Amino acid sequence: MKYALLIYSPSRAGEYAESAADLMNPFIDYTRALRDAGVLAGAEQLTHTDTATSVRVRSGDRLLTDGPFMETKEHLLGFFLIDVPGLDDALEWAARMPAATFGTVEVRAVMTRQAWQAVLD
Questions:
Q1: Which of 28, 11, 2, 5 shows the shortest CA–CA distance to 79?
Q2: Taking a C-beta distance cutoff of 8 angstroms, is the pair 10, 95 a contact?
Q3: Computed over its alpha carbons, how large is the radius of gyration of the chain?
Q4: Strand 40-45 relative to strand 75-83: parallel, antiparallel, unpaired?
Q5: Directed axis angle between helix 13-37 and helix 87-96, to 10°?
Q6: Nearby residues of 39 by Cβ (< 8 Å), 6 or more positions away
Q7: 59: pLDDT confidence band, cut at 50, 70 and 90?
Q8: Are 91 and 3 in contact (CB under 8 A)?
Q9: Is the pLDDT of residue 22 over 80?
Q10: Per-residue confidence at 82, pLDDT binned at 50, 70, 90?
């Protein structure tokens, strides 16, 4: 079963950049551990939310807003996509992630076999 491990940080962009530099080696080790265990399906780091643009279409008009959609104290910074037997395994990998020591790692099951996914085959 696939799970997304969503990485959230409470920090502002500058604070995150400082702490991210300290965590580079632990994240490399974590990524290697996922790969070596054969459960890594994908991973990406996102730029901080101060670079985001939100898009909405209302009554046919495209509305653009600088920044994230919602004002929150935590910001989505990236994700790992893993393929493991079940939720307990996903939670174990989430707890091992370096980001869990300073932010939040949200674990969400991936919906599979959706009609739109047939286009990808």
A1: 5
A2: no
A3: 16
A4: antiparallel
A5: 130
A6: 82, 83, 84, 89, 93
A7: very high
A8: no
A9: no
A10: very high
